[in-house]
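User: Teach me something about this protein's shape.
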Amino acid sequence: MMISAKMNDRLNQQVANELNAAHKYLAMSYCFDAMGLKVFAQRFKQQAVEEQGHALKIADFIKDVGGKVVFDAIDKPKGDYSNAKAIVKAAVDSELTVTAQINEIVALTEKETDYATRSFMQWFVTEQVEEVSSMTELLQWVTLAGDNLIPLETRLAQSMAS
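Assistant: First, the predicted structure itself:
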């Protein structure tokens, strides 16, 4: 095995963390749908698929370095939010949490001088910069729009198309 047992465990934990994030985004998507914000719902459903992809990418890496992939239980996501801003704020907070988790793994790679995992994790470090930035921008848009989110649906659809 090219990674330590401790790293194997920590990466499996991150697989669960990514699946938890996907589960949260799905719940958020359906909250948006219930509010009549179909583009927001679509955007958050896409985000859920992306998070699932992150989990699988990590699981594949574990397999590739001779580790054992273990899927842990995931948490029940919050399913009731008072408004769109609360959902997007929760998404920003979730992305900040995932960023901290990724940084913890990178710190462990440095402690263990695990260069293969360090190289692999660089993609996630870069990805989290984009994730936090895009969700923070969406939170700014929602805050500026106030209660009138219908024009923002169009703007979000345009940003998703580009």
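Now, about its shape. The CA atoms of residues 85 and 140 lie 9 Å apart. The chain has five helices and no strands. If you'd like, I can walk through any region in more detail.
User: That's plenty for now, thanks!
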